[in-house]
Structures are given as C-alpha cells and as structure tokens.
Amino acid sequence: MSQNLILLAEDEEHIGEAVCLNLEAEGYRVLWAKDGDEALEFWREDRPELLILDVMMPGKSGYEVCQRIRATGDRTPILFLTVKARAEDRIRGLELGADDYLAKPFHLKELLLRVEGMLRRRAWYADQTGAGAILEFGANRVDFGRFEAVGVDGKATRLTQKECLLLKLLAERSGDVVSRDEILDRVWGRDSFPTPRTIDNFIARLRRRFEVDPARPRFIHTLRGVGYQFTPVPPGPAE
User: Fold this and answer.
1) What is the pTM of this model?
2) Which of 200, 236, 204, 238 has the alpha carbon at shortest distance from 218?
3) DSSP H helical segments within the chain, as ranges?
4) Which of 28, 196, 12, 178 minimizes the C-alpha distance to 118?
C-alpha cells in the first residue's frame, strides 16, 4: 500500500470528505486544508509528495498557492480542481506551474487515476535524473534535476514537471520521431484524457523558450500526423 502524503486544499465539505476517504482507501496519507493559507502552512510543515488544489478557495486561491510554492523552486506535482474549465484558465494554471487539471464535477475514479499516474511519473523522473542530468543544445542548457533552464534569451527560468518530462523523452529519443501516443503514455498517462491540442501547446511553450525563431524551429520539430522530433545539433540553417 502507498504511503505517499497528499495535501488536499478544498473548502467544500462534501467534496473534501469524499476525496479524503477515497485517497485513504487507496493507502495514501492525506492532509486536508480548508483554505489557501492553511494549505501553505501544511505544505511548509509536512512537505507532501503531491498537492491537490481547488482553484477557488477562501483566502489565497489555488493559483496563489501554486505560485508561492513554485517561487521557492519546489517542483512537487500539483493537480488543480476547478469549475473553470475554459482553455485560458487551464493555460494560466499551467503557466503558474501546475502539472494537471481536473474540472468539476469529476469522477473519483478519474481523480485516483490522475494521482496514481502523477506519482508514478514523479518516481520515474526522480530515478532517471539527478544533479548531473544536463542537456545542452545550441545556446540552451537544461538541468533536469533542478527543473531549471537557460534559454535562447540567456535568462534562467523554471520548468514545470510536464515540460521536463516531455523534453527529456524527446531528448532520450534524439533524432527519432516520437509519436503522440507514446508521449501521452509517458508524460500524461492514458488516465489524464488530455485534449487533442495539449501536446501542441507544450511543444509551443518549449519552442518559445529554446528556439530563436519558434515559427521556424531548428531543434524541436513537428511531423504532422506522425509525431515530434528533437534534433540537438541541426544540420544547417532553419528551413
């Protein structure tokens, strides 16, 4: 049975109780915060392995909690629960550093699958990366162990877990075309039910960080209808 500690921040009693009961039935240890301030207090004191944050809470919102945690360099997986299912709301959460989104109302089985998948990918990533896991291409440098990168603008920036997982997978298969199906399995997991454009959005974000001209990429390529390809040393000028 799992002993992972999960922090749930949810102010709706019936949702919080149901989520806690189901997580505990799966063997997880759960801390339940009723507002954003309490969530931050629990996070500082107990350092959970995964956070489930309701976006709309009393005090600090889930967005604010996520932003404060990510500002410290902490890359603990974060799953948002929200009634805000518009694309712009999901994009905002991802840009703040969240790893996944689940719209209300949701099925508890789906939530459990998301949690299981996020923890499994976190463990895989931790096993495969360390302080010496560095990727350099062009003027770019990525430290997978620290979730940090220096992009084409020369500025240091933080990467989300999903960005690191996606880039690491492409780099491991350097020169090969990696299919959408493989990316979904390795980075999101089939339990996440991502939208068709989810991968495209993440590829676009990586290009903005690492390509001189994102519209004419030299490193991260899209082969329409096939998949994606990473080329760390381009053969010549952008085509």
Assistant:
1) 0.68
2) 238
3) 13-25, 36-46, 62-71, 87-96, 108-128, 161-172, 180-183, 198-210
4) 28
Residues 189 and 168 in one domain: yes
CA-to-CA dists, residue 5 to 29, 32, 233, angstroms: 5, 11, 42
Evaluate whether 154 touches 190 at the Cβ level (below 8 Å).
no
CATH number of the domain enclosing 65? 3.40.50.2300
Q: What residues of the chain score a pLDDT lower than 70? A: 1-2, 84-87, 124-132, 189-196, 234-239
Residue 64 domain flag: yes
pLDDT at 75: 82
Q: Which backbone phi and psi does 222 adopt, to 5 degrees?
A: -110, 125
Residue 175 C-beta-side C-alpha neighbours within 13 Å: 2
